[in-house]
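request received
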Amino acid sequence: MILTIHRGSKQIGGSCVELRSDSGARILLDVGMPLAQPDGSDWPRGTMTRPSDELRREGVLPNIDGLYGDSSPEVSALILSHAHLDHYGLAHHVHPGVPVYGSRGTIEMLRASKLFIPGAVIPSDLREFPADGTISIASFSVRGIPVDHAAPDSRALLVEADGQRLLYSGDLRAHGNRRHLFDDLPEAAGRIDVLILEGTTVGQPQGSHGFANEADVELRLSELLRLDGGLVVIIASGQNIDRAVSVYRAALATGRELVIDPYQAYILMTLKNVYPEAPQFDSPSVRVKFISNHVAKLKDAGLWGLACQMSRAGKVTSEQIAANPSKFVFLARSSKATSALLRYLAPATHPTIVWSQWRGYLDKGGPVQSFCAESGINPLVIHSGGHAHTEDLAEIAYRINPGAVVPIHTEAASQFAAFIPNVRIVMDGEAVEVTSLIAD
Ligand SMILES: [Zn+2]
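response:
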């Protein structure tokens, strides 16, 4: 089996890994959108949906023959580890004849993004992992092993071919609500020849990814909801199911009602089977604040009946929130709709704003940040990141005990060897025989 990391050996985000078996069959693991341009600036709006040939020429799309729509497909499948844009964001450029696989949670998130995000494009041939979790493609067998991460139903991908076993970690952590998945990973994976391991936090200052774990986030939120005498608004990603669970538990513990928007309610509903502990729009002490463009999106998708169900189960109005602000905690998006609502509610409620996602996004500015600045509100940051701390990376590498560890999704590959044995750095675009990586 030959491994090529097309992108990810020296950067966080934009990951793309290719495997070629001895028979010549090829598969791809993730085709992510890089988080930033090479000079560090944000991508211009609409970059992801520009023509494939332009993006390939400019190096935004990895230069992979037989993958895109301009030639007959020579890649047997694309398998996605999880539904973060830096892992799937360019997948719609792949030839429509190439099937794209993902977990139930990944597929649902892609469909939800198409439904709610203007201009979002997703691959045409999306397929869910079969019930036993294993896909057989050409001479490959690929199994998606559940891992703890900030995207729903994330998977590490175990690839077997030519008698070799390679594990691609995707993104993972040990400190979310599903710590047991981290503990169980070595046994689920079994003998591994090569581990391709994410290293987002390697080389970064301790604490730069927020609180140590999700349990601490829940604790801090509970304290805040207990002590704060008014409306608390928590800004988080709608895809961060652990965070929705933490906010819900904190609300229940402090006698508040959790207010969610229809987008959040829809996502939680589609993941009901994967996350039975997550709040639903008809769960006790859950209310839905209708946002007009979310409702319009549901209507456009033929889901008017669902919007009506949400309304009957627990619709709450702005006036009701303004009349009794300390009764509610509002889990909201960083969006124009949220900032408009906050402007309406602020005079009566003097809300406390909690930034509950990566701090870097807060510093970049946006509609909610503008509202805070003009209102003289200093947001509290209560967050725990999606990526394993370095000591957890060391632990998982030790317990899996592979023949070689290849860094990915990191800006500090050269630092892996300080805490992990048998590290082999593979550069972007370098094709290496898997057996050549393994220590004698
Ligand atoms: Zn991720």
